[in-house]
Amino acid sequence: MLTFTIRRLLLAIPTLLFISLVIFLLLELAPGDPMAQVPLTVPPEVKEKMREALGLGDPVYIRFWKWLVQFFWVEPMHLIDNLFGTSLAEGQQRVISWQTRSPVMDIVAQRIPQTLWVVGVAYVVAVIIAIPIGVYSAYRQYSWFDQAGTFVTMVGFSVPPFFSGVLVIVIFSVHLGWFPSIYDTTHKVTDWDSFVVQLKQMVMPVMVLALQITSQISRFMRASMLDNLGQDYVRTARAKGMTEKAVVLIHVLRNSMIPVITVIALGIPSIFGGAIITEQVFKVNGIGQLLITAIYANDIPMVQTLTFIFAVLIVLFNLIADVLYGILDPRIRYD
Fold first, then answer.
1. Cα 82 to Cα 78: distance, rounded to the nearest angstrom
2. Tell me: the pLDDT tens digits for 235-277?
3. In this predicted model, what pLDDT tens digit does every residue of 278-310 receive, in sequence order?
4. Helix, strand or coil, per DSSP, at residue 195
5. How far is the C-alpha of 270 from the C-alpha of 322, rounded, in Å?
């Protein structure tokens, strides 16, 4: 397993380099000019100096190489400096946002906690709810619980977040007045009362995200359970006198989790992208809102960095899913 993990990590390096090149070239070919946001009163010669300061006068391959060095070398050294008080990155040029003229990773670090509060909690809640629903729906196939679960999950998976988000705002915020419609990103948790306020403003965005995630995972869980419940080893376990609870929760559930692990692992980076709409609806000042703002402002370094971070998450969690395969299924051996 260790050899496989090291091999996959080494293979991820050229994969990420190719992804970064594709992202860079796509953004390079995209229409727009970062100087379009500059007031018309600024003289052309000043605009030209600003373009040179941003590095826009360099060839494409030079700018791509500079970004690679900044992202993979300068930013990690700067993180080490912050953690251990060293000065490895002193004087090194970091990835700078064209919109704010500040380091991109500093802005990302400020926004990540807001996204994790919503996305992280929503994903944990969805997984905790989806797995039992999928298991029981498969075990009680075609029961009223299975029929109701199928209907709810199909509706939850079909309704887009921009519709369900507005719907819960109208119901729970406008008519009932239970929860705030706008997420206050400046709120800080210092005591129990402030923690309750944080929970209240998280309920609706978490509800919208968790509904869609639960719908997807529960359907995969149900299908995988149904496939394993009819296998020979299940009949053998029952014939040996094992209790039904042990058969379902130990043997069938463990084997059924193997394909579901892929959905759960690869769904983590995708939910960060899917949370963009939810963050816009509830005014959550997180990564999704930052990406939308950067796209509007044609802030290529910010868009490129955020997009590449999503790609890194996909490659990383794909590796985690493969490693978990070997843990859940002893028949799978990579070495």
1. 6
2. 787 787 777 777 777 778 877 887 787 778 777 776 666 677 7
3. 777 777 777 777 888 887 777 778 888 888 888
4. helix
5. 17
Of the CA atoms within 13 Å of residue 125, those in its CB half-sphere come to 17
CB atoms within 10 A of CB 214: 26
Most confidently predicted of 15-19, 184-188, 280-284, 292-296? 15-19
Contacts of 12-16 with CB under 8 Å at 24 or more apart are: 12/315, 12/316, 12/319, 15/315, 16/308, 16/311, 16/312, 16/315
pLDDT band at 54 (very low <50, low <70, confident <90, very high): low
* 189: phi then psi, degrees, rounded to nearest 5: -90, 115
Residue 189 — left, alpha, or beta (φ > 0 → left; ψ -120 to 50 → alpha)? Answer: beta
Rounded CA-CA distance 135/255 in Å is: 12
| Tokens read off for 40 | 């018309």
Distance of CA 261 to the CA centre of its chain: 16
| Per-residue pLDDT band at 44 (split at 50, 70, 90) | low
CA–CA separation, 183 and 197 (whole Å) = 10
CA dist 129 and 24 (Å) reads: 39
Q: How far apart are the first and last CA of the chain?
A: 6
The phi, psi pair for 96, rounded to 5°, reads -105, 135
CB 238 within 8 A of CB 182: no
Spatial distance between the Cα atoms of 150 and 218, rounded to a whole number of angstroms:
9
Question: According to DSSP H, which parts of the chain are helical?
Answer: 2-29, 44-53, 60-69, 75-84, 104-115, 121-139, 144-158, 161-168, 192-229, 232-239, 244-246, 253-282, 287-296, 300-328
CB 218 within 8 A of CB 156: no
